[in-house]
Write a structure and sequence with these properties.
The chain has 93 residues and is mainly α. 39% of the residues lie in helices and 4% in strands. The protein has helices at residues 4-13, 20-41, 72-75; strands at residues 82-83, 86-87. Helix 1 crosses helix 2. The protein is elongated and about 70 Å long.
Length: 93
């Protein structure tokens, strides 16, 4: 069972200021969540296969095919700033 002191301690660890009245409410809400998990623990799941994802996923990657890439001149064609065959940008330190 989660107490008001537990909530205040977690708030202190998280550096969150929790009002004393709110701590009582949070403790009650967290205990409700734990009670719900206790109910779920009682459900018989012996013959239920695990679900890794609710939607069947299919690999959507394309084939990796080598092909000719852009030439250096073509790559630099739309830039507003280039120098000695490279893109020119602001110095970042």
């Amino acid at each position: 069972m989660i107490t008001k002191e537990d909530v205040e301690h977690v708030g202190w660890l998280a550096r969150i200021e929790i009002d004393e009245n709110d701590a009582d409410e949070y403790a009650s809400q967290l205990n409700d969540v734990l009670n719900h998990f206790e109910q779920l623990d009682e459900v018989d799941t012996e013959n239920v296969p695990p679900t890794y994802h609710v939607i069947d996923l299919v690999n959507v990657f394309r084939e990796d095919v080598a092909r000719e890439s852009l030439t250096q001149d073509k790559a630099l064609e739309n830039t507003s700033s280039s120098k000695e065959g490279y893109f020119k940008s602001y110095r970042i330190i």
